[in-house]
Specification:
This protein has 99 residues and is an alpha+beta fold. The chain has 2 domains: 1-37, no CATH class; 43-99, no CATH class. It is built from 1 helix and 3 strands; from the N terminus they run αβββ. It has one helix at residues 22-32, and strands at 61-65, 71-79, 82-89. Strands 1-2-3 form a 3-stranded antiparallel sheet, with no helix packed on it. A hairpin with a 5-residue loop joins β1 (61-65) and β2 (71-79).
């Protein structure tokens, strides 16, 4: 991906480069085009606030909490080496008073 001070070209900056060229697309294939059969992407269903699963008792074991309890980390062991780590940032019920 090219960077320039004059995207429409000319002068000391060379030809125009307002749009990707063949080299740019080749670089994207190099970065994102996996030629193997493995993937690090797994399927996961998002949990929404109205779901029963979105209750603290279903997040697993509390493994870390900040001193004021507003930041917490939970770990849920799903078995077979699979885990769900839930990061919770509790809102200040009285609002941010630093303003």
């Amino acid at each position: 991906m090219d960077y320039t001070n004059d995207p429409d070209g000319g002068g000391a900056y060379g030809p125009r480069n307002e749009h990707p060229n063949g080299h740019d697309y080749d670089q994207l294939i190099t970065i994102y085009g996996h030629r193997d059969s493995t993937s690090t992407v797994g399927s996961f269903t998002a949990v929404t606030p109205q779901d029963k699963e979105n209750e603290p008792e279903n997040w697993g074991q509390l493994v870390r909490s900040s001193r004021n309890g507003r930041v917490q980390i939970y770990d849920l062991d799903l078995g077979n080496g699979r885990r769900v780590v839930t990061h919770v940032f509790w809102a200040d019920p009285e609002g941010d008073r630093r303003r």
